[in-house]
Amino acid sequence: MKITYLAAAVVGVAVLAAACTPGKKAAKPTEKPTSAISTDIASAGKVTLSVWDQEVRGGQNAEITQLNKEFMAKYPNVTIKRNSKSFTNLKDTLKLALSGQNPPDVVEANQGYPDMGAFVKAGFLQPLDSYAQKYSWRSRYPKTLLDLNSFGSNGTAFGSGTLYGISQTGEIVGIYYNKQKLSQLGIKPPTTWADFEAALGKIKTAGQLPIAFGNKDQWPAIHEFGVLQGQLAGKDAVRNLVFGKSGATWDSAQNTQAATLLQTWARNGYLSPGTNGLGYDQAAADFGKGTGVFLITGTWEVADLQKTMSSNLGFMLPPPASAGGSPVTTGGQGLAWSITARSKHADVAAAYLDFITNAHAADVMTQTGNLPAMRPASAQPPAGTALADIFAAWKTVSDADGEVPYLDYTTPSFYDTLTANLQKLLGGKQSPKSFLGTLQHDYSDFQKTKK
Amino acid sequence: MVVTDRATLGRPTRPRVARSSRKRRRRSLIAYLYILPALAVYGVFLLFPLGRSVWISLFHWDGLTLATWAGFSNYVDIFSDGSLRSAFEHALILIVFYSVLPVCLALLLTMSLSRGRIRGRTFFRTVFFLPQVIAMVVVATAWSAIYSPDGVLNKFLDAIGLHVLTRPWLGDFSWALPAVGLIGTWVEVGLCVVLFMAGIQKIPIERYEAARIDGCGALRELLAVTVPGLRGEIAVALTLTVVAALRNFDLVYITTHGGPGTSTTVPAFEVYHRAFETNQVGSACAIGVTLAVLIFLITLVITRIAERGEA
Amino acid sequence: MISRTERVANYVILCLFAVIAVFPIFGIITSAISAPGDATGGFSLPHSVHWANFSDAWSQGHFGTYMRNSLIISAVVVVAGTIFATMAGFAFGTMDFAGGAVLFYLFLLGLMVPEEAYVVPLFYDLRDAGITDTYWALILPQIAQSVSFGVFWMRTYFRSAPPSIIEAARMDGASSWTTLWRVLVPPARPAIVTMMVLIFMWTWNEFLLALVMIPTNESRRTIPLGLAFFQGQHSSDFALLAAGSVVIAAPVVLVYVFLQRHFIAGMLSGSIKE
Q1: Which residues of chain A lie closer than 8 angstroms to C236, CB-CB?
Q2: Which of B134, B124, B99 lies closest to B194, judged by CA?
Q3: Nearest to C116 among B31, B189, B288 (CB)
Q4: A232-243 pLDDT per residue, tens
Q5: At how many degrees (to 10) do helices B231-246 and B281-310 cross?
Q6: Which of A2, A13, A286 would best serve as a mutation to test chain B binding (most B beta carbons within 10 A)?
Q7: Mean pLDDT for the stretch of residues A247-271
Q8: How confident is the model at residue B85 (pLDDT cuts 50, 70, 90)?
Q9: Chains contacting A (3 or more CB pairs within 8 Å)
Q10: Which one of B264, B277, B305 would you mutate to disrupt binding with A, by most A Cβ within 10 Å of its Cβ?
């Protein structure tokens, strides 16, 4: 092997490619005034609207399919080209899509710093304030929900400022339960947190699996931990952390307690065995078939679970410390539907956003077993179903202002840090103390860059 | 490449007839024209981006906005950042499964195939080699199913009364990496067998006869005759499989996505993960370049060792 | 020659490993024809043959489109790669010219450099050139990868061609172009076929490039990528996944069974490509 030749070749190649600094200055998308917005979609000419969503599960898919069909029937000149992927796949490819030559017109973006923040910073998303005014979106949603879809100062301040998306579905994490199994074991649906923990022990002693939980996909544990943290640390502590209020720290006694509890659950066999190797969808499907008494996850699963379990399925909020106390849980709304800055059909896209979030859309969502982010009076789910439980829970938690944001919003790298370390925590590879230490490290690094 | 390379490059060039320099220049021109299409595509779509990679690795870049100069800090991170360092450590562990284990198993199989008359030799060779031609995506899909909590492996262990050993193989912190590695073993054994079968035919039969007269058993024969005789093939096998181990992206991406935790991340996966998932493009390029250098060095070392042994 | 016990032991070892080599493949095939509910990671024999999985994969998984894309891309890469590599290999193998050695080492570099080392800038550059999400973004880089092996392979072959043939052709007044295609290539057919089957296999099975270069345009996705995304959406529907896997693996396996000699010859030559 003639190393000198190869070395010469390598050097030559390196010289060849020395160019200027990679990357481009961020674009600054501007907004046209409300008066310039056209809502006359029928005369917009032939338009193909490219839409990227992550509504792949049964009920969600049915809802979007129907609304898309209706939209195209209403405006025959518009064709919707839909591209739906699982949440993880969407997360992986959206960045490339948005920075590419032909970005889609409408995308579902995950809120918080890792995704939406990065996109806003790079100028990929269309500010929606004018559209919000034109279509009165601000009266359609409570302010807390809109704030989660907003960023100030070009993507560096999460939780207020310019609106960059609106959500379609409401979303809270809660506890699904198998009614039949609970009554067989002689347990009443718990009304306090202590009851709930006692129930878990009782189920385990009876030789059953207390909580079905698959975490191979890594993100599901965010919700598990989020629920525990919400109970033990309280909503203000969590909100302060996610929104980066000064003085907030991950290294607190309450957070340690939450992490310890999660690890104890895993160690005691309260969670599905081999939880890190079990797929999230698989665990949910198993729960539907009777493995596990509880399933702690989001409302997005209800349509599919109800299909297999029908009236045997129940849903409740994580029970508060004392009966009748004010509820806290992770959630708020589904991913934000946003318009890309380079879309040539922003007006059509906005009309589409409006269409899939209006009162009629809410009815369609209800009929297909989904929870609309803004609850209309017209359609109600049949009483006694889990969906009815969910509608009630949603109202309770909204009225009590008990929603805490998803933890992965916290910093640009938090999704990664949190998911990888939660797996370690669950696998017993990391103590609660060092788990929170790692989170705090990521957190304080980011807070420093903000100053 | 190692062996053939030496054979061809080392050959003396044909005696040249003295030509006028103009004629020579004309011939050179013709040669360049023949090379041009290949070189153009190769230069633009492989060499150029390779050079760019070296350049970008000197920046902090999120892939979205303007980059900032980083100097060598992305390279320093490879040694100082625990998660990156462990990615490289995982790659080294995978080498055991991708290279060492297949070479040992292949020696055993080669011995079984070549000692005495074995019927269906071609059949066995075809079957052993089969995993090599199947797309990694398919391999990963099949093995994910085998390793899944209710998969074949756990069912098998249950059936033979070893329930204590059952586990979610790809979700277990201690077992996920070996589980991924064993898929590599499964893929690479066939390549080694085929290489060794080709090589063993070149070992003079007298050496085996001499060994037998000396009363060597199968093991002694293996160590005294087969392994030295296959030195060249073993070097090629090691090179090919080590490179395969270091380039392991598809398998990790599909089976574990680096999890659980970060227990199965490897450099090739980190390149993708950082470039396209966590907005650290500069760091991704630095890892890619380091990986290329590492492959180059390992190849060089294996070749050198094989050559020295022969001389 | 060897004892009876050893012979039996040899057969046992060989059969055991043959079973291990085939088992996952066999499991995929049986799952692919099982009823969707029956197919799990447990790999059991199907109760009844259920061909519908293939048509379901075809329609739900868009495998028809992906198959077409893979075929188009593989065909162009194989043809262009073969022609370019043959021409360059001819020059390197039969002509002396200034800088020849350096250029040849430059090509060899491509055999050793992993894709991961250049795929990131390649993506950004091709995106700025506006060709990501098109066939070209997969075709051109894969031609580049193929020629680095092809040049090496064809050079070796042409070096071994007897100089007398080339000399004789020149005496007859044949141009180098005619010499290459009329005189040298016909007897080189086995070597060229070997190169073609390898390029075909690499292109057909390619994953990372396909994942990166086609970020948005689903209608340009290749079949291995289709399966990976399909896995994300239908992770609990193993029968469909298995059917998709069979569709991907079948063409290469068929080529392998019929042209085994070529596969093995080529891979033994020491290609470093995976």
Answers
A1: 279, 281-282, 285
A2: B124
A3: B288
A4: 999 999 999 998
A5: 170
A6: A13
A7: 95
A8: very high
A9: B, C
A10: B277
CB contact under 8 A, C143 and B41: yes
Higher pLDDT, C122 or A274: C122
CB contact under 8 A, A416 and B56: no
Res B14 pLDDT > 90: no
**Which amino acid, one-letter code, is at A212?**
A
**Owner of token pair 């495998």:** C63
Q: How many CA atoms lie within 13 A of B311 on its CB side?
A: 6
Asked if C19 is an interface residue toward chain A (Cβ–Cβ < 8 A), one would say no
State whether A273 and B259 contact (CB < 8 Å).
no
**B10: pLDDT strictly greater than 50:** no
By the 10 Å C-beta count (0-12 exposed, 13-18 middle, 19+ buried), C47 is classed as: exposed
Task: Say yes or no to pLDDT of C74 above 90.
Answer: yes
Of C123, C212, C232, the CB nearest to A85: C232
Q: Answer yes or no: are the C-beta atoms of A98 and A119 closer than 8 Å.
A: yes
Beta bridge partners of A404: A330
How far is the C-alpha of A111 from the C-alpha of A400, rounded, in Å? 23
pLDDT tens string A188-231: 999 999 999 999 999 999 999 999 999 988 899 999 999 999 99
Q: Where are the beta strands (DSSP E) in B54-159?
A: 59-60, 68-69
So what's the ipTM on this one?
A: 0.89
Q: Which of C107, C231, C233 to substitute to test the interface with A, most A CBs within 10 Å? A: C233
B307 and A CB contact within 8 Å: no
Which residues 77-106 of C are in CB contact (within 8 Å) with A?
A: 101-102, 105-106
Q: What is the pTM of this model?
A: 0.84
Chain A 345-374, CB below 8 Å of chain B: which residues? Answer: none
Neighboring chain B residues of C42 at a CB cutoff of 8 Å: 150-152, 155
Beta bridge partner(s), residue A48: A79
Q: Looking at CA atoms only, how far is residue A2 from chain C in angstroms? A: 9
Q: At what angle do helices A414-426 and A253-267 cross, to 10 degrees?
A: 50
Residue-wise over A216-250: b if at least 16 C-beta within 10 A, else e?
A: bbbbbbbbbbbbbbbbbbebebbeebbbbeeebeb
Looking at the complex, does the CB of residue B64 fall below 8 Å from at least one CB of chain A? Answer: yes
Q: Write the burial class of residue B27 (CB in 10 Å: 0-12 exposed, 13-18 middle, 19+ buried).
A: middle
Confidence (pLDDT) at A8: 62
Q: Parallel, antiparallel, or unpaired for β A47-53 and A78-84?
A: parallel
Q: What backbone torsions phi and psi does residue A167 show, to the nearest 5 degrees?
A: -100, 155
Pairwise pLDDT comparison (A62 vs B3), residue with the higher score: A62
Residue of A nearest to C106 (CA): A9
Query: Helix A302-309 and helix A58-74: axis angle, to 10°?
Result: 120
Contact C100, B34 (CB under 8 A): no
Residue C185, Cβ density class (10 Å: 0-12 exposed, 13-18 middle, ≥19 buried): middle
Cα A295 off chain centre by: 17
Nearest to C132 among A56, A100, A285 (CB): A100
Contact check, Cβ <8 Å, A22/B5: no
Closest C-alpha among A335, A21, A6, A318 to residue A177: A318
Of B54, B61, B148, the CB nearest to A23: B61
The CA distances from residue A375 to A134, A155, A391, A398, in Å, are: 21, 29, 8, 11
Q: Does B51 touch chain A (CB under 8 A)?
A: yes
Alpha helix positions (H), C33-133: 52-60, 63-94, 100-112, 119-128
Report the greatest alpha carbon distance in chain C.
72
Q: What is the dihedral of CA A42, A48, A52, A56, to 10 degrees?
A: 80
User: Is B4's pLDDT higher than 70?
Assistant: no
